[in-house]
Amino acid sequence: MANHHSAAEEHGKRHKHEGPQKHIVAFIFSVVLTVIAFAMVAAGEINSTFVYIMLLVMAVIQVFIQMSFWMHMKDRGHLYPIIAILTGVFVVLTIVVMAEYWTWW
């Protein structure tokens, strides 16, 4: 009789299937953040500085949700993609800051 176990199962590193529950919660949270952002901008009566700060905070939260649940960056074995993404963010932020600095002088 043939043994149909994968190499990961033989080493005790069996991948546990999460199911759709976490994806549904992440989707609902993303929709709620989007609705809140739209409502804040549509209200027009809220201080614009506060709206900008809240939009940036909600955007960062949205990025972490997308990266964790939809791109599965929370799982093991994704160290190199995370390093590459963080390096890209650092490079882009450096370019933006240097471009702003260059245009001001």
Automatic annotation (TrEMBL):
Subcellular localization, as worded in the UniProt entry: Cell membrane
Domain of life per record: Bacteria
Keyword Transcription regulation: no
UniProt cross-references to Pfam families, sorted A to Z: COX4_pro
Membrane-spanning parts: 24-44, 50-70, 82-104
First-listed, main subcellular location of the protein, grouped into a coarse class: membrane
Family: Belongs to the cytochrome c oxidase bacterial subunit 4 family.
Protein name listed in UniProt: Cytochrome c oxidase subunit 4
Protein species of origin: Paenibacillus methanolicus
